[in-house]
Amino acid sequence: MASISQTAGARPALSFTGRGGLVDKYFYLAMGLLTAATVYAGFSQTVNMNLFHPAVPRPKLLWFHGTAFSGWVLFYIFQSSLVRTRNVKIHRTIGWFGAALGAMMVPLGFTTAVVMTRFDLHTLKETGVAEFMIIPFYDMIVFGTLVALAILWRRKPELHRRLLFLATAGLLDAAFGRFDYLFNRNLFAVCVLGVMLLGVVRDLLVDKRIHKVYLVALPCLIAGFGSAIYTWRSASPWWMSIAHSLLG
User: Fold this and answer.
1) What is the predicted pLDDT for the residue at 125?
2) All structural domains of the chain with their residue ranges
């Protein structure tokens, strides 16, 4: 009888997959930490010579840009931690700060792209930078769209959390692009999409199916990223006309 009662009162073993398993509980928090580690690894390659101790001082706007985008990563980790610890009410309240931050990051991203491209062209005398400006522009369009949809569907957690995950992962091309090997071979885009696909892996492990957010968003993102890279590498005339009008 004692063994039966002990068995009945024992806590069920925590599984790795399935609802309530480790993947289900910690995926989004783990993705936030992975994002932070990737940002640190990538920008540690260049931040000292390009920002902290540059031979030619960079525009001060770059500091605001770095602070805002780093703040988003920390905010994403913090919000994921609140969900993990079941502090949903605080999560929702602080979420409006994230909405304001995300809304600010979009015009800040566009402006920083133009200011830094002008700096690279006129001060550093670099070439090929006007063509590349399509990449941060694409990033901001995607980020703004995904965050706006996440806010719109904030009361639908299954949509909300996946959209924010994709929005945050989409910012990683700047970090992956700091590695010359990845940048020169356009593999930074593949790395970003690889991180996004971890969301699909999570769904298969936990829900045994792929959520409609990924089924709709990922093909669009793959096509969009491919088009942006083609536009950059081919210096498409339509884009060069827009870039030169923005750069003056």
Assistant:
1) 94
2) 19-247
